[in-house]
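Translate sequence into structure tokens.
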Amino acid sequence: MLTMHLLGLLFKSLTEKLNSILPESIKLWIRIIGKTLNYISPIILGMIIYNFWKEDWITAAIVLGVLLIQKIAEIIKEEQQATTMAKQP
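Result follows.
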């Protein structure tokens, strides 16, 4: 299950890099797959956290902490890009 989340991160990274060189028809399928993974991954992540919590709450807390830090880093990156785009004439 954790592999699914990691694959989602890898997929997102690859799509950002390949987005500029792929034709529009392939970009459409990549966006569809990406959105599907975005809907499925929180459910799977919730199951993983629940399982960790039942086994060992410390592991669950560590996993949640890492994911929170990762999400905060993504938000900061998006805000910096938005600010940069807003400043450009």
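Note: Residues 2-87 form one domain.
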